[in-house]
Amino acid sequence: MRYWLIVLILFMCAVCGDSAAAVWYVDVDNPAKPWKGTSWARAFVTIQAGVDAASSGDEVWVAEGTYTATVDCVVTMKSDVHLYGGFAGIETLRSERDWTAHETIINGEDARCGVIGANGATLDGFTVTRGYKVYGGGMYNFDSSPTVANCTFLHNRAGNRGGGMYNEGISQPTVTNCLFVSNGAYSYGGGIFNDSLSLTVTNCTFWNNGAGNTGGGIFANSSSVTVTNCILWGSKVDEIGGTPGPTVTYSCVQGGYPGEGNIAADPFFVNAGIGDLRLNPGSPCINTGTAVGAPATDILGIPRPQGAGFDMGAYEIQAGAVAMTSDAPDPTNAVVPVTVMFCEPFNGFTATDIVAGNGTVGNFVGVDGDTIYTFDLTPVADGLVTADIPGGVATSVAGSLLNNAAPQFSRTYDGTGPTVAMSSDASGLTYTSPIPVMVTFSEPAIGFSDTDIVAGNGTVGNFVDVGVGVYTFDLTPLADGLVTADIAAGVATDAVGNPNDVAPQFNRTYDGTSPTVAMTSDAPDLTNGVIPVTAKFSLPVNGFTATDIIAANGTVDNFVGVDGDTVYTFDLTPSADGLVTANIAAGVATSANLTFALTLTSALASSTARFASRLR
Asked: Mean pLDDT across the stretch 427-444?
């Protein structure tokens, strides 16, 4: 008897040992080899390696980081193998992970699908993004029934159906506490397309998904689909499509949808524009879900419910929550009106509980006395203006619950108008026409045109908006002298409406007249000696030398600059009887006031010399 008892004990131990689930580890940043996946120190570097190593019932723990592949799909799941993301890479218990702090990303790189599902498999704590496939860009389930929880499906696309997820055949997936954000399908089901045996979607949030035909959020075609406690909002088309459509209850659906407990009011997200799909206090989705089938926690691990009932969507607002919102744009150039909302009635909240940064609090009003308050936040100087409400400053009317600290409210204040200046590569005294001018605003300007430039002794042309507050134009002088351009204050504004300051006047002195030159002599026209010649320019010039004088039947000698730049003298010595000439060609000298070559008027001087027979 004792022998058989020992055998039975050994047999049971063996059975238990064989059936115990194993944990496989994956860390894309693990440099160590060999990669055996048996510990964090020897973790695989791809999720697929962990899945391939696992057996039925095993878990694959995946550390934070971005995982991709070169095959058709980043991850192909295996039946009854459970994938968990959100690890830092040091944990010994699954409960220690935090998929919000340690985001684990499956990235299809817009070239392949993210995940292929499997029966009994689990996908929990992942962000699936940029998946692309004709059917099921983010996740593809054919005859498979995985459990998907605490996942985000973001920016996935399908060439036909199911941008975020595609279900077909005898599949019966369940999807809980998930976000479907900005997914798209060419035809049907931007968030989820379903043509399977059944699908259960609970406490999920769908935002900004789109489809070419119908079902921007969910499309259900001849299938049994149950949607509970969900939010479907912001789709490019109708949120729900298909015949027959899904059974939807206790959900917030844009445009409305028939079903018990459904609403169609704005869910009032914290900031959907930047992807914050948490609920603000005052949201109609708070406490309006059902307890039937609701998960015990939300996508952040916050226990449900926090209030009198379960919330719709992936996020459960925390008890004692308070938030501040405003319709003021960001940035702004005005006083910022702010609304404070508590998730339930609170006592004891006053203006002194609001801590302003770079601003002051005024005009504090209790709108309903215990839940909604308004105040004005007046900026002190340009820059970030903030308001904080610390935790514990108010107490709930229903009991002793203290408020949580509010997320910081902020706006960027810009009360300074743009400055503007004009510049040019042309020198202060110039002969260039037209004069190229650049206009530079200190920030991008709105409403500025060529008609805002006032020219003096010139005209404005060839106006070009270069971009980012920079413009160019040509200033064409009308006459010699000062040429100016002015830009008045208030002809343009910055992005928030602040008018520009007046620009310093732009000016250049224009000299478009070339100097002339003439040669004269006191010698008679018929002479018998050396001829003294004076060359006189109409303006001071540079660069004039004796070599610039071309003598015919004579030579140039004794060249002297009398005043250095206007009057010059030289002797013209005849070589033989007959006509003796001197020429100064155009362009041999430049105006002394300019650095640019100017056309000079050609000068000609001549004398006829006849030598007496006594001259040899």
From this structure: 95
Count of residues for the chain? 616
Q: How far apart are CA 223 and CA 112, in angstroms?
A: 27
Closest by Cα among 149, 155, 136 to 219 = 136
- 170-180: average pLDDT: 96
Strand ranges in 170-304 using DSSP code E only, listed in sequence order: 174-176, 179-181, 184-185, 192-196, 198-202, 205-207, 210-211, 218-220, 224-228, 231-233, 240-241, 247-249, 252-253, 269-271, 276-279
Decide if 172 contacts 146 (C-beta within 8 A).
no
pTM value is 0.70
356: number of Cβ within 10 Å: 20
Three-class DSSP category at 327: coil
Q: Whole-angstrom Cα distance, residue 256 to residue 232?
A: 10
- Does pLDDT of 64 surpass 50? yes
* Chain-centroid distance, C-alpha 510: 45
Residues 6+ apart with CB under 8 A from 20: none
Average pLDDT, the chain: 91
Residue 604 pLDDT more than 70?
A: no
Q: Considering the chain, what percentage of its residues have pLDDT values greater than 90?
A: 81
The two beta strands, 231-233 and 252-253, are parallel
pLDDT in tens, 223-279: 689 999 999 999 989 999 998 889 999 999 999 999 999 999 999 998 898 899 999
The reply to whether omega before 303 is within 30° of 0 (cis) is no
What does the buried/exposed string (b/e) look like for 507-538 if buried means 16 or more CB atoms within 10 Å of the residue's CB?
Answer: bbebbeebbebebebebeeebeebbebbbbbe
SS3 553: coil
The owner of tokens 């059975």 is 15
Whether 606 and 531 have beta carbons less than 8 Å apart is answered as: no
Is 95 a residue whose pLDDT tops 50?
yes
Distance between CA 202 and CA 28 in Å, rounded?
31
- In sign, the C-alpha dihedral spanning 529, 530, 534, 535 is positive
Residue with tokens 């009308």: 478
64-75 per-residue burial string, b: 16 or more CB within 10 A, e: under 16: bbebbbeeebbb
- Burial class for 240, CB neighbours closer than 10 Å (0-12, 13-18, 19+): buried
pLDDT 10s digits, 129-140: 999 999 999 999
